[in-house]
Write a structure and sequence with these properties.
This protein has about 140 residues and is α/β, with parallel strands linked by helices. It contains six helices and six strands; from the N terminus they run βαβαβααβαβαβ. α5 crosses α6.
């Protein structure tokens, strides 16, 4: 996976143009964060939906860095709602239970922080029924 970062809380210029260029040179993924403390979180829902539409347009995967606060910032009840917005996967940053990691893996790709996840955690998730085809290590 080769990806480009797009931050929802800042005005990054013409996002569509940047994504079109990235796609043309071989990028296939977009990464964003849904929990940057200094961001105006009221922008997240609208901008994430717009980014999801662009990801679909350019046939790129959209992965969002999440924390427990992300669900509040987006005004949603369940992470599966992100699938309707064009998000293909999440990378839980902190504050997640084993149960949530396993349930997320049943819905979408889950990027695991390769520098902090342990073999024991992965083994636990697999024993609990995690969908191994949706687990990825991200650096």
């Amino acid at each position: 996976m080769l990806g480009i970062s797009v931050y929802l809380g800042s005005d990054g210029g013409d996002v569509e143009q940047r994504l079109e260029r990235a796609k043309s040179i071989g990028f296939d993924a977009i990464f964003t964060s849904l929990h940057i403390p200094e961001d105006d979180h009221s922008l997240y829902q609208t901008r994430l939906k717009e980014l999801g539409q662009l990801a679909r347009k350019f046939e790129m995967e959209l992965v969002a860095d999440i924390s427990p606060e992300s669900i509040t910032h987006l005004n949603i009840q369940h992470y599966e709602e992100l699938l309707d917005w064009g998000v293909n996967g999440v990378r839980p940053d902190y504050g997640y239970t084993d149960d949530l990691i396993v349930s997320l893996s049943q819905l979408m790709k889950v990027g695991l922080n390769a520098s902090t996840v342990s073999r024991e955690e992965i083994e636990t998730w697999l024993q609990m029924g995690a969908n191994v085809s949706n687990l990825e290590a991200l650096a």
